[in-house]
């Protein structure tokens, strides 16, 4: 009886702790008034709600990521107050609304400067709406942009602007309205950064956890996911946050490694969150929580997928597919690829033929023409096609073929009309027929790198810097020109290129370069 009472007490305490964690509050907005003598700050949120806070001496205070005193804060700056469930203030984070020219600058070719004017950041741009997440619409890595330059030899892309002051990191970009979103570092924090798509000027920055550090390069690896007027960001140390797109106000934040009993992976969490309806999908790799679905409104758990073997997270990002009426989320873990049922998180199938035990990075590719999934990894491994069949809400995965010709490390792949294009280690652009697994052609192109597809062409970015335009051609390699990225950093150019709004975006550590690729 005593042990039963202790068990009930333990459960009650755990539940109380969980409720406290869920109910902990965040209030973010612009400072409208300050009282240094009383350490009181009044903040107005994006929704127009105004609230005053008395900051206790026990609360930590930071300004632009550094420990600060209250007298450093000014009206007009952005502030975020973190409180416990009982209302106790634990932290005050304050940042400049706009980056100063001393910390971040924009350079544009002189001929372009007069033509470029700053626009209303809230005005939607129809072309920009299509690339709101990592790998774009349906995460297929194919841009819907029409009317792009078809021959760079005849009409080379023009550099429109270069944004500076992004810090370290390997994040790519997403777009919504007239804003470009990426992640970087500032002071001792990872930050989310919003950039004006027309001018390259930083509109706002918002911290998102401490900087992840390792020997391959510090900072975030994930790309922000836009969902209407909010975005979801995942830092390399597992810090997951929901923010407003317009001003960067934090609506909720949590750490998926801490919340789901997981440990970080060697080179840091690299997954970009997937939004599906009211669910946010991510893969912490915890005990009984290989993948989880969260309520996107408040971050509370909906389900946890207990995949057999409890594999740790890898460096890939999930996709959603439907086979035989069964909706499922598919992702690459440390041990192999898996599919879980979308509504309940029930594990459906798994396969490890094209997995390595070091770093599985590239997102899976869905081939709807045959209800197949192709996935691949580097480190001497290769790629495999799995044929999925569904019956009575169950899905099975059978190996269709394995190929050693697609050792795709982390540059991603793309499927067009049943043909797969991707860079195979040590750096050979390769085309494979997904119907029979035959390699159609191979070319060293610009070397190992990352790619995307737009308007019938592959944009192939070498990790050493050069970018080539290659025709989507299942018969032979046809290059339509290339150029060298200027101002290369000392790190590999790993962020995936993005084509949206008639522009090509290339992130390289502290820089984001924007090129005009629209045909005249």
Automatic annotation (TrEMBL):
Tagged with keyword Signal: yes
Keyword Manganese found: no
Protein name per UniProt: Outer membrane biogenesis protein BamB
Pyrrolo-quinoline quinone repeat domain residues: 189-443
Signal peptide annotation: 1-24
Keywords, alphabetical: Signal
Region (Disordered): 103-139
Ranges of Basic and acidic residues composition bias in the record: 109-119
């Amino acid at each position: 009886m005593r042990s039963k009472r202790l068990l009930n007490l333990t459960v009650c305490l755990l539940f109380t702790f969980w409720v406290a964690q869920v109910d902990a509050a965040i209030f973010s907005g612009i400072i409208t008034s300050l009282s240094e003598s009383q350490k009181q700050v009044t903040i107005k949120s994006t929704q127009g709600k105004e609230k005053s806070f008395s900051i206790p001496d026990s609360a930590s205070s930071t300004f632009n990521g550094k420990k600060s005193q209250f007298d450093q804060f000014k009206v007009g700056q952005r502030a975020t107050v973190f409180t416990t469930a009982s209302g106790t203030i634990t932290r005050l984070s304050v940042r400049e609304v706009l980056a100063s020219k001393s910390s971040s600058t924009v350079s544009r070719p002189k001929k372009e400067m007069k033509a470029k004017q700053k626009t209303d950041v809230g005005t939607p741009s129809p072309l920009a709406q299509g690339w709101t997440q990592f790998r774009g619409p349906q995460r297929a890595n194919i841009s819907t942009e029409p009317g792009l330059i078809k021959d760079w030899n005849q009409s080379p892309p023009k550099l429109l602007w270069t944004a500076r002051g992004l810090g370290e990191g390997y994040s790519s970009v997403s777009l919504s309205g007239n804003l470009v979103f990426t992640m970087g570092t500032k002071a001792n924090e990872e930050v989310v950064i919003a950039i004006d798509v027309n001018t390259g000027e930083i509109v706002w920055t918002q911290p998102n956890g401490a900087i992840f550090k390792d020997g391959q390069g510090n900072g975030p690896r994930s790309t922000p996911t836009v969902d209407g007027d909010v975005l979801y960001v995942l830092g390399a140390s597992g810090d997951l946050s929901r923010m407003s797109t317009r001003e960067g106000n934090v609506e909720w934040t949590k750490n998926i490694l801490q919340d789901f009993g997981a440990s970080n992976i060697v080179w840091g969490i690299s997954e970009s969150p997937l939004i599906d309806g009211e669910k946010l999908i991510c893969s912490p790799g915890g005990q009984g929580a290989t993948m989880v679905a969260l309520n996107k409104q408040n971050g509370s758990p909906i389900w946890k997928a207990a995949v057999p073997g409890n594999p740790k997270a890898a460096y890939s990002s999930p996709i959603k597919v439907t086979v035989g009426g069964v909706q499922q989320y598919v992702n690459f873990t440390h041990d192999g690829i898996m599919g879980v049922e979308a509504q309940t998180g029930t594990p459906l199938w798994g396969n490890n033929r094209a997995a390595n035990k070091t770093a599985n990075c590239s997102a899976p590719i869905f081939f709807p023409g045959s209800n197949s999934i192709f996935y691949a990894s580097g480190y001497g491994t290769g790629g495999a096609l799995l044929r999925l069949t569904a019956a009575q809400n169950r899905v099975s995965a059978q190996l269709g073929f394995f190929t050693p010709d697609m050792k795709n490390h982390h540059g991603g792949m793309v499927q067009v009309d049943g043909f797969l294009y991707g860079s195979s280690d040590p750096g050979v652009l390769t085309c494979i027929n997904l119907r029979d697994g035959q390699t159609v052609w191979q070319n060293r192109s610009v070397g190992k790198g990352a790619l995307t597809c737009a308007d019938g062409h592959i944009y192939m970015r070498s990790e050493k810097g050069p970018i080539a335009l290659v025709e989507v051609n299942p018969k032979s390699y046809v290059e339509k020109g290339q150029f060298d990225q200027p101002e290369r950093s000392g790190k590999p150019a790993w962020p995936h290129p993005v084509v949206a709004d008639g522009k090509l975006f290339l992130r390289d550590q502290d820089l984001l370069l924007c090129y005009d690729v629209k045909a005249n």
